[in-house]
Amino acid sequence: MTLAMSYDPSTGQLRNEDGADRLVALIYHQKFPSHVESRRGIRLVLSELERSKISQRTKDTLPTPERIETTVRNVNWVLQYWTCAPAPDPLDDAYGYRAIRGRAQYLDLVA
Amino acid sequence: MVDSIDGDSVPISLIHHEARLSQGVCPPRVCIYRMEINPPASKRKREEVDKKTAVTKPARSYEYLDIQPLYQALRTVVLQSIGRTHLPLHSGHEVRMLVSLICLTGTDFSRGLPQVFFCFFLFFWGGWRSEISRRSQARRSMSISRRSG
Fold first, then answer.
1. For strand A13-14 and strand A97-100, is the pairing parallel, antiparallel, or unpaired?
2. I need a surface site. Which of A23, A73, A110, B103 has the fewest CB within 10 A?
3. Angle at which helices B9-22 and B67-82 pack, to 10 degrees?
4. Per DSSP, what are the bridge partners of residue B63?
5. What is the pLDDT of residue B47?
6. Residues A36-40: what's their mean pLDDT?
7. Nearest 10 degrees: CA dihedral of B135, B137, B142, B143?
8. Which of residues 65-94 of B touch A (CB under 8 A)?
């Protein structure tokens, strides 16, 4: 149900904010149910995980909120690209890529 | 027939299958010929020796993947997970939604979310979960009846 609420059927892609704050937040809640109480808000879920008793090694692998937001945008571009309609420009701000020295980079790594 | 070395061909085919159905067009029958994932141990153990280099290579097995029944099965699971909630706008997007979820585990153009693996979704997904519990309950009741019998 959360997936459906995070998905916009009019555009055929995930809603950027809901994708991170609802869908990915719930995925991490489900992954670490005994360490995370919140089911919504990716920053809240990640901060709860940071304060939890999970191992430091696992904590080190957790993504930043910026990376999650970028990934959701990247996924939206992939969905459009796979549809084979003229794919939108990946360097559009909506899709989470940025051109650095002629090469596309993930937005969170650049900012 | 799609001869594929890339796992992305499966979600791409599923998206196109659904798009054709949404347009009211009969989708073409697509079969993907690809390397088998998690082959049975009996197949995995067999090894081949390259005749030219005499190097032993692990055996690879290939399979045909019929997109139409796969699409039907995945759509059923998505509909089960949504339950009785009526979402008319999402009708015809069920498998595309699932593909967006799969994409979060990583594609050629996006990074996967750390600590999130595709197999995890099998348990995360409500439909699968209820299916698994239903089957295990059936198995348990069978073993109980055998014991009592």
1. unpaired
2. A110
3. 70
4. B34
5. 58
6. 85
7. 120
8. 81-83, 85, 87, 89-90, 93
Q: Where are the domains of chain A?
A: 2-109
Work out the minimum CA distance from B114 to partner chain A, whole angstroms: 6
Cβ-based contacts of B120 with chain A (< 8 Å) = 30-31
Residue type, B25: V
The whole-angstrom separation of Cα B28 and Cα B68 is 9
Distance of alpha carbon B26 from alpha carbon B17, whole angstroms: 9
Which of B19, B102, A23 minimizes the C-alpha distance to A15? A23
Q: What pLDDT sits at residue A63?
A: 92
Q: Is the model's pLDDT at A32 over the cut of 80?
A: yes
Cα(A25)–Cα(A5) distance, integer angstroms: 13
Average pLDDT per run of 10 along chain B, which is 149 residues long?
A: 75 93 91 76 58 66 86 87 78 90 89 76 54 54 55
Token look-up 């009996």 returns B42
pTM for this prediction: 0.78
- DSSP letters spanning B6-65: STTHHHHHHHHHHHHHHTT-PPPP-EEEEEPSS--HHHHH-EEE-TTT--EEE---EEEE
Residue B42 corresponds to which tokens in the numbers above? 């009996």
Q: What is the predicted pLDDT for the residue at A48?
A: 92
Residue reference for tokens 């690809």: B34
Identity of the amino acid at B98: L
